[in-house]
Amino acid sequence: MKKLTLTIFVIGFSIGLIVSSSINIINNKNINKKEPEVLNKQELLKNTIKEEKKVKEIPKATVADKPKEEFVTIIIENGYTSQKVADILYNDGLIQHKEDFLTLLKSLNLSSKIRVGEKTIKKGSSILEIINIITS
What are the φ and ψ backbone dihedral angles of 118, each rounded to 5 degrees? Predict the structure, then answer.
């Protein structure tokens, strides 16, 4: 009985050793495959740093030529209807189509949520952004 137990233990130990060695060999192959990828990431990082330095070297005159963002301030007074607000937005060039603005405002159930006050809106804002500004 002792001989059988010893044989089973030796066989089990041998199988465990073989399996763990196989796993180790497979992992080493995967690590060797990943090393070039790490090098590529390091090269990419170096190239990115070089590009950032080039961007910093751009003459300031070209940066200053960039057009500045325009803002329009509108005043919404007590008693203004959504139609009146749409007229103001259209006349100030903030929206292109009053009907689209009114339709979206109504579909969002925000026609009665327009707040009184002075609102500053960036030109080129979407209708949703404008609605968010005038209702908050």
Answer: -90, 125
* Per-residue 3-state assignment (H helix, E strand, C coil) for the chain: CHHHHHHHHHHHHHHHHHHHHHHHHHHHHHHHHHHHHHHHHHHHHHHHHHHHHHHHCCCHHHHHCCCCCCEEEEEECCCCCHHHHHHHHHHCCCCCCHHHHHHHHHHCCCHHHCCCEEEEEECCCCHHHHHHHHCC
The residue behind tokens 């330095």 is 53
Mind listing the pLDDT tens digit for each residue in 44-89? Answer: 555 555 565 555 555 555 555 556 789 999 999 999 999 999 999 9
- Assigned token pair, 129: 């952004």
